[in-house]
Amino acid sequence: MRDVSARFKYSEREFHKAARRSSSDDSENKPPLATANAAQGVNEEPVQPDSCPSRELIHSHIRRYYRDVDTKATTDWEVVSARIRRDLAPYTVLKLGGFSLGDACTRLLSDVLAHGASKLRTLDLGFNRLTDQGATQLAEALETNASLESLYLSGNEIGPAGARALAQVLIKNTHLHSLHLSGNNIGEEGARFLADGVAGNTALRALYLGTNGIGTAGMQSLATALTQNNSLEELTLGQNKVGSEGVRHLASAFATGHVALSTLELGKNGVDQEGAIALARSLCGVNRLQNLYMDHNPLGDVGASAFGALLAQNTELRVLDLSYTQMSLLGLRELSVSTMEVHVRKVISDIAKLPFNADEYETLQAYYLGGRCSTGSNGCSDWGIDDVTGEPTPCPACQSSRLARYRRTMVSL
């Protein structure tokens, strides 16, 4: 079996999300106690949590189900299907990620989703060796499903054909809010198909497309789709091949003022200073972006300066990740000077996390992005640097300094 995990690595943010899902107990996989008792036809005391089925038990049932399908006559399919629907009816969340179920499981689960009585809201099929066939079966079921809100298909083997099937259902389905497709083989062609789906969709809130080989052409299609979509709030494109040319297409989309995104991840996409300049300039206009992740791109000090100019004008952005972007203290200073008079925000930098020597550390203390003092509803703008000593000057209102705020900020990172 191909080691998918060796090819696909979660971004830090996706990793923590996945870790929280997998480290939690199996209570999400359990039916409500009242529902469980009703299904068993008993009038005893509420069923204890440990008596409810776990992920492993659900997995074994699904294995048994599609073994039955393979061995029994086709006339028995309705019987097996009815049993599956009955067994899974109480559940709203199924976490089956990492079980290597293959496409055979999608026929069973698709039948559950297509049935009008399904209550499933979240279905996790990540890292299950699903191909285009499995994605197509799920897509067909989603055409009539009205319950599923989150679908996790990351780390599979879905290509352009599977992406096309999912894109077509996005146009019809008005209930799916989150679609995870990171770590597949969608490529440029698949990105173009998904762009068509996004353009015609009114319900999707989050789309994860990291590590899919998406380049300039795919980014151009997605950028055009973003100007036609008013619902998508989060787009993850980390670890692709978008490059600066692809980011220019994205910048053109933002320049229209019709992009609804509040979170955008472009980490590790080969974006240089030219791409940074184009994106930063476009974000000076009207937009809703609050979280921008540009980590692991060779932006350099010129790119940092461009984002510094953005921060001086933009009042929406709250989180800007510029870690591991080949930025020196000069670039960090450009960010700091540009933002001394604006609202408090969080800027992530590898320099801030790794002060290699005392001289750099002291310089960082003087120039670290601190924003305004938190005193009062509007804050104050009296922080500064003493011209003679070079030390941070305290705020007259609260007697705090940018240095003190720096230390508090470092603790929170």
Describe this structure as you would to a colleague.
The protein contains 17 helices and 12 strands. α6 runs parallel beside α7. The strands form 2 sheets. A 10-stranded parallel sheet has the order 1-2-3-4-5-6-7-8-9-10. The chain has a two-stranded antiparallel sheet with strand order 11-12. The protein has 2 domains: 76-343, Leucine-rich repeat, LRR (right-handed beta-alpha superhelix) (Alpha-Beta Horseshoe); 354-375 and 382-412, no CATH class. The chain has helices at residues 4-7, 12-23, 33-40, 55-71, 77-88, 104-114, 132-142, 160-172, 187-199, 216-226, 243-255, 273-282, 300-313, 329-338, 350-353, 358-367, 402-412; strands spanning 93-95, 122-124, 150-152, 178-180, 206-208, 234-236, 263-265, 291-293, 319-321, 346-348, 384-385, 392-393. The two termini are 39 Å apart. By secondary structure, it is α/β, with parallel strands linked by helices. Helices cover 45% and strands 8% of the residues.
Shape: elongated
CATH class of the largest domain: Alpha Beta
Regions with pLDDT < 50 over 5+ consecutive residues? 1-12, 22-53, 352-385, 394-413
Strand composition percent: 5-15%
Assign the structural class, choosing from mainly alpha, mainly beta, alpha/beta, alpha+beta, or little secondary structure. alpha/beta
Order of helices and strands: HHHHHEHEHEHEHEHEHEHEHEHEHHEEH
Strands, total number: 12
Please give the CATH architecture of the largest domain.
Alpha-Beta Horseshoe
The average pLDDT value, as a whole number, equals: 76
Total domain modules: 2
Order of neighbouring strands in the sheet with most strands = 1-2-3-4-5-6-7-8-9-10
User: What share of residues is helical?
Assistant: 40-55%
